[in-house]
């Protein structure tokens, strides 16, 4: 196979791997943060609010800088190879950053669920965790599918920042390709843009479908 | 927004109160444990020794950090102004009545909005880098991406102004350019101010990407100082605090403007959700 195409294929795979792992991580992290922010324990509410405020106001580059160069100082390393290590660290940074935005989106979704829902749930004897898990969050998730989609598409584009921290993904594939073939810089740039566009548009279609099937308009 | 979140749980009774206290204590212990672990590891790595922090008392280092901070702010300011211009132009192009104008504009907008801003910065740097340098590469990259996002924000704002406004303007004899400039634009910008400022904060945060194309911004200087004095973590913490301060200031300005704007009449930007 053409070595250029191979480079781009492995780059696309790297981007998708970063995206997939981060997607799962930030949905879990965002849900936990959102749950903490509405929980009856004041300290959990404060901790989550402080975390969201600080990390949301920090550039992702800085978050990733800290995770990739800082966490090794704390003896936190993953995997046997350097490539694996920087992959996991980049995923942690992306998850830590995106979780804040997911949490904020979910919180606005929770606010749109009618008060009567939670009141009825409590009236039949559900505890806080049950109210949130069975009644409020499922509705909140379905209400915020459109904004959640833009957060997740932004995250897909943010995976490009991992290229500066020894990760193999589309941008670093493009830079490798440009080093080999300096004569076709512009076609290589356009090819990279095209792959990102296809990925972003595909993701947009997925969310449009989910929205059509599941969204609750309020 | 705070009212509905308060009703997810009842006023705690004796058992719930005891449980809450226990949970509070446990979470405090966990948080303190985490902080203690981080501090312990830092001191283990020798990052908390006075020698590592001493460089920040040097005038040279302070000046370098301030220069980096100014470089970051400069990029953000120039890119914001250019992005606003690009945003207004593209919003108008997309709203143009002629398909021949609005269709290409839509296409260009979707392309630049759909790719990572880093790719745009790289493209500027690789294609024009020799002529325009890293500063303008970062500025143009940020402008292209954020300009398109701002164009969409302004367009949504203009579309949200009630139809009667433009109809009334037309009926008293304003031309369509006058209607846009005198009637629609002021209302749209006022209604969209919070979203616009949020996008400026995003732009400011993205300006940290300049470090990747060797623009000597705050993060670049943090990296350089950290490597030459072997105190990466302390420098990082100082840099992060500076970054967060800049962003918090912009966010505070945003809140202030939002409050001021909300006192005046503004077009509704979303279908009324109705408050419980």
Can you write the helix and strand succession of chain B as a string? HHHHHHHHHH
- Per CATH, the architecture of the domain at 73-215 in chain B is Orthogonal Bundle
Rg of chain B to the nearest angstrom?
25 Å
- Return the average pLDDT of chain B rounded to an integer: 83
Question: What is the CATH-assigned architecture of chain A?
Answer: Orthogonal Bundle
Through-space gap between termini of chain B: 10 Å
Pfam families (chain A): BPD_transp_1
Organism (chain A): Brevibacterium jeotgali
Membrane topology (chain A): Multi-pass membrane protein
Protein name (chain A): Amino acid ABC transporter membrane protein 1, PAAT family
Q: How would you describe this protein?
A:
The complex is a heterodimer of chains A (218) and B (276). Chain A is mainly α and 218 residues long. Chain A contains nine helices and no strands. In chain A, 42% of the residues are buried. The mean pLDDT of chain A is 89. Helices cover 79% and strands 0% of the residues of chain B. Chain B is built from ten helices and no strands. Chain B has helices at 2-5, 14-44, 50-53, 59-95, 99-114, 117-160, 163-171, 176-206, 218-228, 232-263. Chain B is flat and about 75 Å long. Chains A and B meet through helix 2, helix 3, helix 4, helix 5 and helix 6 of A and helix 2, helix 6, helix 8, helix 9 and helix 10 of B. Chain A: Keywords: Amino-acid transport, Cell membrane, Membrane, Transmembrane, Transmembrane helix, Transport. Chain A: It holds the Pfam family BPD_transp_1.
């Amino acid at each position: 196979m053409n070595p250029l195409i191979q480079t781009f294929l492995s780059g696309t795979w790297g981007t998708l791997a970063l995206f997939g792992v981060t997607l799962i991580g930030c949905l879990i992290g965002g849900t936990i943060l959102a749950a903490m922010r509405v929980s009856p324990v004041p300290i959990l509410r404060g901790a989550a609010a402080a975390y969201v405020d600080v990390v949301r106001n920090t550039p992702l580059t800085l978050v990733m800088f800290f995770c990739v160069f800082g966490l090794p100082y704390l003896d936190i390393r993953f995997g046997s190879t350097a490539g694996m290590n920087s992959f996991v660290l980049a995923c942690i940074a992306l998850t830590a950053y995106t979780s804040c935005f997911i949490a904020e989106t979910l919180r606005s979704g929770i606010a749109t669920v009618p008060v009567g829902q939670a009141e009825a749930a409590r009236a039949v004897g559900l505890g806080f965790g049950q109210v949130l898990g069975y009644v409020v969050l499922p509705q909140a998730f379905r209400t915020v599918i459109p904004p959640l989609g833009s957060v997740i598409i932004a995250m897909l584009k943010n995976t490009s920042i991992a290229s500066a921290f020894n990760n193999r993904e589309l941008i670093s594939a493009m830079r490798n390709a440009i080093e080999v073939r300096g004569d076709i810089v512009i076609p290589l740039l356009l090819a990279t843009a095209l792959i990102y566009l296809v990925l972003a548009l595909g993701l947009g279609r997925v969310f449009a479908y989910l929205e059509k099937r599941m969204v609750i308009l309020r | 927004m705070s009212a509905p979140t308060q009703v997810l749980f009842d006023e705690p009774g004796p058992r719930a109160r005891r449980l809450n206290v226990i949970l509070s204590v446990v979470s405090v212990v966990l948080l303190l444990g985490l902080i203690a672990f981080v501090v312990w590891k830092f001191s283990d790595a020798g990052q908390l020794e006075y020698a590592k922090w001493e460089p920040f008392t040097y005038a040279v280092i302070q000046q370098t950090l301030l220069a980096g901070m100014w470089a970051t702010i400069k990029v953000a300011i120039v890119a914001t102004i250019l992005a606003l211009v690009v945003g207004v132009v593209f919003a108008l192009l997309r709203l143009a009545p002629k398909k021949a104008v609005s269709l290409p504009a839509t296409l260009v907008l979707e392309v630049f909005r759909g790719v990572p801003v880093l790719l745009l910065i790289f493209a500027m740097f690789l294609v024009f880098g020799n002529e325009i340098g890293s500063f303008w590469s970062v500025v143009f990259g940020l402008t292209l991406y954020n300009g398109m996002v701002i164009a969409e924000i302004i367009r949504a704002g203009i579309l949200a102004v009630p139809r009667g406004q433009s109809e009334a303007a037309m009926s008293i004899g304003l031309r369509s350019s006058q209607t846009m400039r005198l009637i629609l634009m002021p209302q749209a910008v006022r209604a969209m101010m919070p979203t616009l400022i949020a996008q400026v904060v995003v732009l400011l945060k993205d300006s940290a990407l300049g470090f990747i194309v060797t623009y000597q911004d705050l993060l670049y200087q943090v990296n350089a100082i950290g490597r030459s004095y072997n105190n990466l973590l302390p420098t990082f913490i100082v840099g992060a605090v500076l970054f967060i301060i800049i962003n918090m200031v912009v966010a505070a300005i945003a809140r202030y403007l939002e409050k001021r704007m909300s006192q005046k009449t503004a077009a509704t930007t979303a279908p009324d959700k109705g408050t419980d």
